[in-house]
Design brief:
- The protein is built from 15 helices and 15 strands.
- It is α/β, with parallel strands linked by helices.
- The chain has an eight-stranded mixed β-sheet, with helices on both faces. A five-stranded antiparallel β-sheet has the order 12-11-13-15-14.
């Protein structure tokens, strides 16, 4: 029987009630041998995440402001957690060490990691598992660059003789022992790394939703759940904002050919979503999911014989790089090039950008189109299906939605349409209505 690695996010470890749910989930399946936990998240709407409180303590200290009251809030929260779980006899000593480190000028990474560290120690004791400090097994170099293969070897060696272990997520260490964290949400990455190292049958990522939905439930009432999704489809949808998983967690699992199962701690009987490269399972629908965002700006560039001018795109990209403006998409034609950017990234510099393009690239004309929303229609089944584009564009036309831009990558699993911000929700609904019931016949 295979091994399961289970990661529990902030909402799943927010308090003793949630942690008792974790115990029930772990006890229900003997193959759940390696557990990764986040720091405690929000217990209710107006609550604060422990990691945010720790960052606030650091900011207070750096600005010579008192942080004792804020620090006590964190201390009290962990003391209450330890008391309710009947564990953690040395919790006060741990907090004395952390407070002293703040006074001595510790790093942001060290302080931010303590939420996972302390939560991991408490939950490991509660579950009766061995605690493995992530600082021992998650490797970074002296410059803070993550070391994938060194981490894989360290995890294999450390876990090979441990039947059941709990590893805190989010952080590791440099060669000198100093703590280094991943970006926020990085506990997902730790879970994927552990899953690869132990050659897990599946990597379960437990959160507060039952997997992915075909569209945003704030736009579509009761959208269809996604039972299976490929890594490629997930990356396309995550890029447009539809994600409950840190995108960097995908690679270690993909390298190890390990399926990821997104599960709901509060509804453990729900199957959730399986992320896998087994396309025989993934391709059940023509369109897997629909996602998008508002507030993009398009710079439409016109120049005669543009396609024959060498170095034009390189010089255009150089202007964007020099101005620190990320490029989102770049549809092109024979004499045209469209530069799609998030409006927030331009930050009032559109006139400067236009002036530089006109002067440095000697173009015929530049037009600025703002208030654009992008809608991504994603599905591996689209590449082998005739008439998908026609059906999509017909659905938008029948909804009286004007398409301002079309972009499709060479993978043919993603069609991006640009519409006006005001039409965004109607566009998502039109596409969803056109495709959500269309299955692939086998």
């Amino acid at each position: 029987m295979g091994i399961k690695v289970a990661k529990f996010g902030g909402s799943s470890v927010a308090d003793a009630i949630q942690i008792n749910k974790i115990k029930n989930i772990v006890d229900a399946d003997e193959t759940r041998k390696y557990i990764i936990v986040s720091a405690p998240g929000k217990r209710f709407d107006n609550d604060s995440k422990v990691t945010d409180l720790l960052y606030s303590c650091m900011m207070h200290k750096e600005h010579n402001l008192p942080f004792d009251h804020l620090f006590q809030v964190i201390w009290d929260r962990f003391k209450a957690l330890a008391m309710n779980l009947k564990v953690g006899g040395d919790i006060d000593r741990e907090f004395e060490i952390i407070k002293e480190s703040i006074n001595q000028g510790t790093t942001h990474d060290y302080l931010a990691s303590r939420g996972e560290y302390l939560n991991g120690k408490l939950i490991a004791e509660f579950l009766g598992m061995e605690f493995v400090d992530a600082a021992q097994v998650i490797k970074f170099d002296n410059r803070g660059k993550f070391l994938l293969e060194e981490t894989n070897e360290a995890l294999k060696e450390r876990l090979k003789n441990i039947d059941k272990a709990l590893i805190p997520g989010f952080y590791g260490a440099k060669p000198d022992g100093s703590i280094k964290t991943f970006s926020r949400g990085g506990s997902d990455i730790t879970g994927a790394l552990v899953a690869r190292a132990v050659n897990a049958e599946v990597y379960e990522n437990w959160t507060d939703v039952s997997g992915f939905l075909m569209a945003d439930p704030r736009i579509i009432d009761n959208p269809e759940p996604i039972e299976f999704i490929s890594y490629s489809e997930l990356r396309e949808l995550a890029y447009m904002g539809a994600s409950v998983l840190h995108e960097d967690a995908i690679y270690p699992a993909k390298v190890g050919n390990i399926p990821i199962n997104i599960r709901n701690t509060n509804l453990p009987d729900d199957k959730g979503t399986i992320i896998s490269d087994d396309l025989s399972k993934c391709q059940s629908r023509v369109v897997t999911g629909i996602a998008g965002n508002k507030d993009f700006t398009v710079l439409a560039i016109f120049k005669n014989r543009l396609s024959q001018e060498r170095g034009f795109i390189r010089r255009m990209a150089g202007i964007l790089e020099d101005m620190d403006i990320p490029l989102e998409h770049m549809p092109s034609g024979i004499d045209t090039l469209s530069i799609v950017m998030q409006t927030s990234s331009i930050d009032g510099r559109i006139d400067e950008l236009v002036e530089r393009v006109e002067n440095e690239l000697k173009v015929d004309r530049v037009e600025v189109v703002d208030n654009i929303a992008l809608v991504a229609t994603v599905g591996s089944g689209m590449s082998s299906r005739l008439g998908v584009s026609a059906k999509l564009f017909t659905a938008l036309a029948e909804a009286k939605i004007n398409i301002r831009m079309i972009d499709q990558g060479s993978s043919e699993i993603n069609i991006i349409t640009g519409v006006e911000n005001k039409d965004f929700e109607r566009a998502v609904k039109a596409i969803y209505d056109a495709f959500h019931e269309e299955k692939i016949s086998r």
